[in-house]
């Protein structure tokens, strides 16, 4: 009997360890309209259909972004679900123009999982969280999941351009109520560490830093937290980062610090299996 139990445990462990429940292309990372990495201010309707809005209690209820990675899970930053915001009450999928999108669907929240090593005091390290929606999402032209890279295997190199989608207001004179697009450039962690040194931020391998392009300045703003940092490889979109922290005004020489998603693939996979 003992031998039988041990055998059973062993088999279960092996299966659960080797199991990969994350979506793979072509089941993720595709959209009905696609302007690729082209520089622009706004997304077209249906573009980046995995970018979702987190909805909080209160009037100014949109303060963070997330990304749909399966029919049940949204990836975002830990700050967005533990920070000084109001209570998170739902997730809006398929949004284009804030509060008035024909194709949007709101889901409730079943469970929030924050990385166990994330601490509010730890300057963005492990700033990653998963939101389990209260029902399975019905994918549509406007609601689709993005692919994730494989563990430890970032497709990005310093100098590469990346793209981010969100709904932050941007500068005061340029309100952006429509899903916006920010194009930025990946920098090395060494350069990032130098730029953050004065701010006592430590950049380790878990970070992916981005800066403005050399000839085009576009920035993220408060409200973009948790937004997906994306790259198109072949015909498929991958999420390489999660926006974590940066400057509150454009024009400074401060980069954005993002979670490097390829460092957390095992964690994400495990949490999806556990939940
Ligand atoms: C999920 O949550 C939404 C929004 O709170 C609610 O309208 C819906 O009825 C819930 N669905 C299920 C299956 O519980």
From TrEMBL:
Subcellular location: Secreted
Domain of life: Eukaryota
A single GO cellular-component term on record: extracellular region
Signal peptide: 1-18
InterPro entries from the UniProt entry: Peptidase_S1_PA (IPR009003), Peptidase_S1_PA_chymotrypsin (IPR043504), Peptidase_S1A (IPR001314), Ser/Thr_Proteases_Immune/Dev (IPR051487), Trypsin_dom (IPR001254)
Gene3D superfamilies: Trypsin-like serine proteases
Boundaries of every Peptidase S1 domain copy: 33-273
Any GO BP: proteolysis
Sorted UniProt keywords: Disulfide bond, Hydrolase, Protease, Secreted, Serine protease, Signal, Zymogen
GO MF annotation terms: serine-type endopeptidase activity
Keyword Hydrolase in annotation: yes
Sequence similarity: Belongs to the peptidase S1 family. CLIP subfamily.
Protein name: Peptidase S1 domain-containing protein
Lineage: Eukaryota, Metazoa, Ecdysozoa, Arthropoda, Hexapoda
């Amino acid at each position: 009997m003992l031998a039988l139990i041990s055998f059973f445990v062993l088999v279960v462990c092996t299966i659960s360890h080797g199991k990969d429940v994350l979506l793979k292309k072509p089941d993720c990372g595709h959209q009905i309209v696609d302007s690729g990495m082209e520089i622009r201010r706004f997304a077209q309707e249906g573009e980046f259909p995995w970018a979702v809005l987190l909805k909080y209690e209160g009037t100014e209820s949109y303060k963070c972004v997330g990304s749909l990675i399966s029919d049940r899970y949204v990836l975002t930053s830990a700050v967005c679900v533990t920070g000084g915001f109001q209570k998170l009450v739902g997730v809006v999928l398929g949004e284009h123009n804030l509060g008035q999108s024909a194709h949007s669907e709101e889901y409730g929240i079943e469970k929030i999982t924050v990385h166990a090593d994330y601490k509010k005091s730890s300057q963005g390290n492990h700033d990653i969280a998963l939101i389990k929606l209260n029902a399975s999402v019905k994918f549509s032209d406007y609601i689709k999941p993005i692919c994730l890279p494989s563990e430890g295997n970032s497709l990005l190199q310093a100098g590469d351009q990346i793209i981010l989608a969100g709904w932050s207001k941007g500068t005061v004179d340029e309100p952006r109520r429509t899903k916006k697009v920010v194009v930025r450039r990946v920098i090395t962690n060494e350069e990032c560490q130098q730029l953050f040194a004065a701010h006592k931020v430590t950049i380790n391998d878990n970070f992916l830093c981005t800066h403005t392009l050399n000839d085009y300045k576009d920035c993220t703003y408060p409200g973009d937290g948790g937004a997906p940092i994306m790259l198109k490889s072949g015909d498929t979109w991958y999420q390489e980062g999660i926006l974590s922290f940066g400057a509150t005004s454009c024009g400074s020489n401060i980069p954005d610090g993002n979670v490097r998603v390829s460092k957390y693939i095992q964690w994400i996979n495990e949490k999806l299996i556990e939940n």
